[in-house]
TrEMBL record:
Record field: transmembrane: 7-30, 59-78, 85-107, 127-148, 155-177, 183-205
Protein's UniProt keywords contain DNA-binding: no
Keyword set, alphabetical order: Membrane, Transmembrane, Transmembrane helix
Naturally occurring in which organism (per UniProt): Aliicoccus persicus
Matches recorded under CDD domains: PAP2_like_2
Superkingdom: Bacteria
The protein's name in its UniProt record: Undecaprenyl-diphosphatase
Stored Pfam families: PAP2
Length: 225
């Protein structure tokens, strides 16, 4: 399981690097891809639709994801899943905030300036909403899917989370605050973070639980394999 999670994470990381290099070098396919997909998505813009999307997209903004992450950490901690609790919290904190902000500054891509429905002041690549939604909802989904026994439950969780993430990604382009490659880059980085973090968690869990046992702390963190 550790190997499969790690390899999957590396694949998504390489895809992120590929898109990032293309954005930095202003590759021709990036402009064509962004223009084509932006025209397709923003061709569906309506006044009522934009009002709804502007509010609904906040399920992945800084405040919402921070509150949800803290709540999840507390719930896991109360259930004595100490390792899982801290691992989840630090993964979201480091990848969705620290690394994301750092990459935005280094890459320095400006946001779109045409048909902007709602204003954003930060830089454009990668999309923070995309990374946050993939990391929070995706990490929860992966944990549930790998620990659930019923296949039907796994399918339901997978579909619900996929719909949430796809909505967030499309909403950022719909509102004119991101190029499609911004959200694709955010998607790949978020997925890479999830799988790499999950593989490291699975690798470190036995040793951490053994150490905690010596300290008389009963940890109930689940194994993913």
């Amino acid at each position: 399981m550790v190997k499969k999670l790690g390899i999957t994470g590396i694949i998504f990381l390489l895809l992120f690097v590929f898109v990032t290099i293309a954005v930095i070098t202003d590759s021709l396919w990036v402009n064509r891809f962004d223009n084509t997909l932006t025209t397709l998505i923003q061709g569906q813009v309506t006044e009522s639709g934009s009002s709804f999307v502007a509010v609904a997209t906040d399920i992945a903004d800084f405040m919402a994801v921070t509150i949800l992450t803290v709540a999840t950490v507390v719930i896991l901690f109360v259930k004595r899943m100490y390792i899982a609790s801290l691992w989840f919290g630090f993964t979201v904190l480091i990848c969705a905030w620290f690394l994301m902000d750092t990459m935005k500054v280094i890459i320095g891509r400006e946001r779109p300036d045409e048909l902007v429905i709602t204003m954003e002041t930060s830089l454009s690549y990668p999309s923070g909403h995309s990374i946050a939604s993939v990391l929070f909802y995706g990490f929860l989904a992966l944990g549930l899917i790998l620990t659930m026994k019923k296949a039907s439950y796994k399918i339901i969780v997978g579909i619900l989370v996929a719909l949430i993430v796809l909505f967030v990604l499309a909403s950022r382009v719909y509102l004119g605050v991101h190029y499609p490659t911004d959200v694709i880059g955010g998607l790949f980085f978020g997925l890479a973070s999830i799988f790499i973090s999950a593989s490291l968690y699975q690798l470190a869990l036995p040793r951490l639980q053994q150490w905690m046992k010596k300290k008389n702390w009963k940890d109930q963190s689940p194994s993913l394999g």
